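Before the break, one more example. Copy the sequence into your notebook; we will annotate it together after we see the structure.
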Amino acid sequence: MRGHVRSILLAASLAGVSLAAAPVHAEEPPAQLAATVQHRLNLLGFGHVHARELSVRQLAALHLELQGRALALGGLHRMKTRQRVEVILGWD
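Here is what the structure looks like once it is written out:
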């Protein structure tokens, strides 16, 4: 759990966003981050989700979650990734 928080903060800082100072839905997310996350969501079967409507916090978490083997075809790993994505999408 601690590693996830660190990862989220790192992704947010790389995206040029301060989570402590900004409200969750402060401004439009960086276009490149939203496009990258949207592409990965589409590959995972979440095409109905619009990345530009997500909070920067959700985008940062999804960006980190959907890297590497997360998009591997089939198997238990993909199923767990989908479950983690659903949790992130449920954040306020």
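The chain has one domain: 2-89. The helical segments are 2-14, 31-44, 56-65, 75-89. Try to locate both features in your own notes.
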